[in-house]
Design goal:
The chain has 172 residues and is α/β, with parallel strands linked by helices. It has a single domain, classed as Collagenase (Catalytic Domain). The protein contains five helices and five strands. It has a five-stranded mixed beta sheet. Strand 1, helix 1 and strand 2 form a beta-alpha-beta unit. It starts with a strand and ends with a helix. The chain binds zinc ion. The site of zinc ion (ZN) has 3 residues, from helix 4.
Amino acid sequence: MSRPLRFVYRHDAAPAWFDAPQVLALAQRAVQAWSPCGVPASVQALPPRTSPAEGDIQIVWTDTGSRGQFGLANVPARTLSLGPGLFRLLRERNPRYPAEQTLQMVLSHEMGHFYGLMAHSRRCVDVMSYYDDGKGQRCTLRDPSAWGSVVEYRSMLPTACDLARCRALNGP
Ligand SMILES: [Zn+2]
């Protein structure tokens, strides 16, 4: 992945309850939170009907691209897909659930893959964690009895541990 990382955000197909400046601000907050990693990065809005520049990483809303998940990073294709369908379902099930926090976590997590963190963390609290790996392996909680008692274990922004892994991968 070439440096600096240039993320561009396209608001088309976003759920109606997120507005473009709001999502852009969340993406910018994620980039800012990753900045102690030392990799230069920026986020800009991509105006409608404009094409991304060579090397840009597009943040787009697509259920196909996100494969039914909240978000999916396709690093070779330079695409970070957000899943409108799952955000819609979350809102249907619990309209009061703070979807903005989920979106912040998803953006921070998926961006982490573009910073070179391909492997997931096993500590639930890390933004680069996962719920379970599809093979029955769950992330580790300091208090295992907390499983099922809270909705979201992951931090919304990279933790000190996420940042340390990022620095180790990217060097000085
Ligand atoms: Zn991931």
